[in-house]
Amino acid sequence: MSEYAMKDTDFRLFIVLWNQQQNMKTPHLHMKIAHWLEERWKSGDKALLLMAFRSAGKSTLVGLFCAWLIYRDPNLRILVLAADFTLAKKMVRNVKRIIERHPLTTHLKPARADQWASDRFTVQRMLELRDPSMMAKGVGSNITGSRADIVICDDVEVPNTCDSAEKRVDLRERLAEISYVLSVGGTQLYVGTPHHFFSIYADIPRKEIGEELVFLDGFERLSLPILDEQGNSVWPERYSDADIAQIKRSAGPNKFDSQMMLKSINIMEGRLNPDLLRYYDAPLEYAKEMNTLYIGQHKIVGASCWWDPAFGKAGGDNSVVAVLFGDEGGNYYLHHIAYLTIDENDDIDEASQQARQVANIAKEFYLPSIAVEINGIGRFLPNILRNALVKARAPCRVRDVSSSRNKDIRILEGFDAVMAAGRLYVHENIAKTPFIMEMREWRPGKSKGHDDGLDAVAGALSLQPDRMERLYPQGGHSWMKGAGAHTAKSDFDV
Questions:
Q1: CB 463 within 8 Å of CB 410
Q2: What pairs with residue 188 in β-bridges?
Q3: What CA–CA distances, in Å, run from 216 to 57, 186, 199, 292?
């Protein structure tokens, strides 16, 4: 049957034909999304919102939808907006691949190579139009002068576009420009997951920011969380109950509710409950014969350390080092936190004094590496610390880390999963530091107190623990030789 005889091929058959060519099955979830998209299009709905959980394949399906629309009407112009240009170009590239290979669309590929670029392409069509058949743009780019019959907003809301009030306002202003690009009677399709309480996808107006109507008021919505109303997986062939439970443990309750259950989570309601911490008093011990570290009876297989530096007057930010270990069972042990102090009578400068203290911590706790946050004043510290490590004879490498994410989100996500799973153990001596009080008094977005210890521990939690075996081979380094069983002290003065 020719492509002209099949002009009325429905979207679901279009998908099945593609998947068969790719030796893939078409899950029921995808058929449900395809049916909704086709019905809304044929009903003439011009404002659509598709929300589905992470890794549901929604962007792939929307790419097929774009190819199907172009197959039905080669004169259509589609603009893809995403949080960044690379993501938008990914969808355009995927649609190009479909048009090249789908049995119903191969005739649409143009003869001229200049019409077949990676970020834009023009199929063979009857009309002479200035704008391409499909074009990719980042949501922050200039779209003035462009015209489109369909605008696809694919994951325009991500942490980098919504983690501050200023960014959320800017995102809404950028999206408001779509009305100047869209042709008369054109269609908008938003595809994504919520990343904030003040999400553009929220279904209830946020009076806190002066909304009388939701941002996407009047949009037809399809929302597909990973669990249905009965608590069953909507894609059981791929996500079993055990898989979903593992995702929830790994992501933590807040991120799971946001990205997998499509709830607009209010970060302002986030709390760190110190009562969920599990305390221990066992020391860190190194068994030379086995070249292994232990905390009590638990074999340590990884370690991470984060230094969040600060300088300046009393009452300002604290300079904090957090030392975290991990065992074979996936538990974490917050073994040491140091709020660094400065001796004004010391002839050594403040930065070198702090680096000396950090180097001594690295040696005492057998640390394979230390991450140093280099934002602002920390940029010159890694080299000073490396020199201090050499003087301390501590075989520890230094990682330069730049943190650009919102601090409240970083802290909340760092603690959320491990505390909810009951996997964060804290040495009793840490109760003598300001850390527990920071946790108890912390209020994201509102806290006026210190959160430096929380930030340092969140940083350590965010790192993949370094395997000790890689850095301490049999026989050890010179400062470990002849050490025998060694107990590292956990207490310290603040």
A1: no
A2: 47, 151
A3: 22, 16, 10, 57
CA distances from 242 to 237, 238, 293, 370, 434 (A): 12, 11, 32, 35, 38
Domain boundaries, the chain: 11-224, 274-488
Burial of 46 (0-12, 13-18, 19+ CB in 10 A): middle
List the one residue out of 277, 295, 272, 332 whose CA is nearest residue 462. 332
Place of tokens 């044929």: 42
Q: Which fold has domain 11-224?
A: Rossmann fold (3.40.50)
Q: Residue 58: which of 31, 33, 86 has the closest Cα?
A: 33
* Intrachain domains 11-224 and 274-488 with the same fold: no
- φ/ψ bin of 399: left (φ > 0), alpha (ψ from -120 to 50), beta (otherwise): beta
Beta-strand runs (E) in 13-158: 47-52, 78-82, 120-121, 134-138, 148-154
Let me know: does 373 contact 402? Beta carbons within 8 Å.
yes
pLDDT tens digits, 269-278: 667 888 889 9
Alpha-carbon span 79 to 64, nearest angstrom: 15
The alpha-helical segments, DSSP class H, found in 396-467 are 407-420, 435-441, 452-462
> Is residue 84 over pLDDT 70?
yes
Q: Specify burial of residue 94 (Cβ count, 10 A radius: 0-12, 13-18, 19+).
A: middle
Q: Using one digit for the tens of pLDDT, what is the confidence trace for 116-130?
A: 998 999 999 988 888
Q: Which CATH architecture has domain 274-488?
A: 2-Layer Sandwich (3.30)
Average pLDDT, the chain: 87
* Six-digit token string for 443: 């209020």
Nearest to 90 by CA among 64, 119, 69: 119
Confirm if 167 and 106 have CB atoms less than 8 A apart.
no
Lowest mean pLDDT among 16-20, 55-59, 317-321, 439-443: 439-443
Nearest to 160 by CA among 373, 406, 403, 402: 406
Mean pLDDT of 390-404: 90
Alpha helices by DSSP H, listed for 145-252, are 159-162, 165-176, 178-181, 241-251
Rounded to whole angstroms, what are the CA distances from 255 to 192, 297, 463?
A: 15, 33, 18
CB atoms within 10 A of CB 166: 8
Give per-residue pLDDT as tens, 209-256. 888 999 999 999 999 999 999 999 999 999 999 999 999 888 888 889
Longest pairwise C-alpha distance within the chain: 90
Percent of the chain with pLDDT over 70: 88
